[in-house]
Amino acid sequence: TDALFYHMRANLKRFAPRPSNRGGLKKAAVAVTIVEHGHDAGISAPRTADSTAGRAAMILTKRSAHLKNHAGQWALPGGQVEAGEDAQATVLRELEEEIGLRLGPDCILGRLDDYDTRSGFSIRPLVLWGGTDVRLTPNPGEVASIHRIPLAEFMREDAPVLDDISGSENPVLMMPVGSSCIAAPTAAIIYQFREVALLGNNRRVAHYEQPYFAWR
């Protein structure tokens, strides 16, 4: 609804995102895109706390098993920033390439903190308003499946899940979805979106650890 649009835009405008201060990392950008929940043909959606059509949802993908980096994992649409691009250009290009969604710069509501990964990337998350009546088409070379996750699912009382991990002083952050879990870095970005854009909290997440399988 328009109310959600203005609510998120106002919260993101008040938030001061922190850039990464680490050198030697590849720059990447991802799109936290809010759309109407739907049931497009060929697009699966896991069981959630609220799967009513017409509710606001976030677009997530399962990465192709054939990709070099993070194959088969939950992901937000996005990728490496190419020469001559900024984060904004990257997310708009990747949305169209990965899931067939063409949006303009006016759909960007704001951004969250940069998140540095164990696999050598510095991720800049941008929040976008995708709107209603959205049709999505997965690029089979990059995306195994597309999922529209109702925002209510990220407000569950059991989220986030924090697990200690050997070799790090910080816990791994995960966000439960249906009967499974999404791990950081994607989970950390989702959690900060929830706290900042939806709840208006000044929550930082860059310190949260990633599970061992995301270290490569």
What does this structure look like?
- This protein is an alpha+beta fold.
- It has helices at 2-14, 87-99, 186-198; strands at residues 26-36, 56-63, 74-75, 78-80, 108-111, 115-116, 121-131, 143-150, 161-163, 172-177, 180-183.
- Strands 1, 2, 3, 4, 5, 6, 7 and 8 form an eight-stranded mixed β-sheet that branches. Strands 9-10-11 form a three-stranded antiparallel β-sheet, covered by helices on one side.
- The longest helix has 13 residues, at 2-14.
- The protein is globular, with a radius of gyration of 16 Å.
- Residues 50-54 have low confidence and may be disordered.
Major sheet attributes: 8 strands, mixed
Strand content: 25-35%
- Please provide the ordered H/E string of secondary-structure elements: HEEEEHEEEEEEEH
Number of helices: 3
Report how far apart the termini are: 39 Å
Helical percentage: 10-25%
Mean pLDDT score: 89
Radius of gyration: 16 Å
Computed structural class: alpha+beta
Inertia-based shape:
globular
In the predicted model, the low-confidence regions spanning at least 5 consecutive residues are 50-54
How many DSSP-defined strands? Answer: 11
